[in-house]
Amino acid sequence: MQISTKLYNERALGQFNQITSDIQNTQARIATGKQLLRASDDPSAAVNIAFAKEQKEILARFDSNIDRAQSRLALTESTLGDAINLLTRVQELAIQARNDTYNAEDRKAIGAEVSQLKETLMGFANTRDTQGKFLFSGYRVHTQPFVANDEGGVDYHGDRGLHAVQISETMKMKMGIDGAEAFLRVRDGDKAESVFSILTTIEDELNAGFINAPALDKIDNAISHLSIQRTVIGAQMNKGDVQKSAIAKRMMLMEEDISKMEDADLAKLVTELQSKIVNRDAAQQAFVKIGQQSLFDFIR
Predict the structure, then answer these.
(1) At 163, which CATH number?
(2) Residue 234's domain spans which residues?
(3) Which of 247, 249, 260, 250 is nearest to 49 (CA)?
(4) Same domain for 178 and 274?
(5) Nearest-CA neighbor of 137 among 145, 125, 127, 126?
(6) 195 and 72: one domain?
(7) How many domains is the chain partitioned into structurally?
(8) Mean pLDDT across the stretch 198-227?
(9) Do 10 and 121 share a domain, yes or no?
């Protein structure tokens, strides 16, 4: 007669199943390197990990926004640099034309070059970004901002909108400048004049066989004006660089926090696994030995 009962066997098998489950769970943690396999393992830690990962994703979007803005700003800065170089060339030609060794025909030839440079400047002002959107048209990114009119002037078809992206919870970064302000509002005392009209004045004077000193002052004002606009762009790019560095530091700290909460201590888990296996084997041997005993083993 066996002394082991059905209840004893069921309880023993339940314990074996639990031990086996614990061993498999530990093995899974070792294989994945993660302390938490399911949220139910530690609900509080799981919530903290989920929050940290969500914040990390938000920071990644901020970082992506900075890259997008920096790309557009870099193109804008380069375009303004080209425009400044062009105006500097016009200034050199105007100074050259004032030399008494040049006659009216020479000045007309210089005026023809200025005319070509003015067309080139129009192209700079209508530059598109990598997505085919105009840099200087404000929110009307698919509308050509600067268009020559029948009177020989230039009309602005954009608006005064300034694109911006979120680069932190409380900070935005501009992605460009006001195109009308950049090309149409060169200060000359209390008045404002467009860069294109300044070049037209120089062009007309040269074609007429002369060049006056006020025209040189205007081209100098235009160069200074665009240089200031370029500085504005540089300030936004520096702002992006500073914030990008701050985001990188926050990302690193969050990764460390997530690792502390989520990553498993492999050495500890291996020791724990070995202990559980030893306990399981010992329990199985004891179960087999007890299960084989009868009443006579106890009354001897």
Answers:
(1) 1.20.1330.10
(2) 62-257
(3) 260
(4) no
(5) 145
(6) yes
(7) 2
(8) 95
(9) no
Classify 134 as helix, strand or coil.
strand
Inside any domain, residue 165: yes
Of 282, 167, 286, 288, residue with least CA distance to 236: 167
Report which of 214, 183, 206 is spatially closest to residue 116, judged by C-alpha positions.
206
Q: Are residues 248 and 113 in the same domain?
A: yes
The overall pTM is greater than 0.85: no
Distance (Å, whole) CA 179 – CA 162? 9
pLDDT confidence of residue 171: 95
- Any alpha helices (H) in the chain, and if so which ranges? 6-32, 43-97, 104-125, 179-184, 195-207, 213-262, 266-291, 295-299
* Residue given tokens 């990390």 in the structure block: 56
Q: Cα–chain-centroid distance for residue 27? A: 40
* Residues 68-94 pLDDT 10s: 999 999 999 999 999 999 999 999 999
283 vs 258 pLDDT, higher one: 258
Region of 132 (left: φ > 0; alpha: ψ -120 to 50; beta: rest) is left
φ, ψ of residue 28 to 5 degrees: the values are -65, -40
- Asked whether residue 140 falls in the same domain as residue 238, the answer is yes
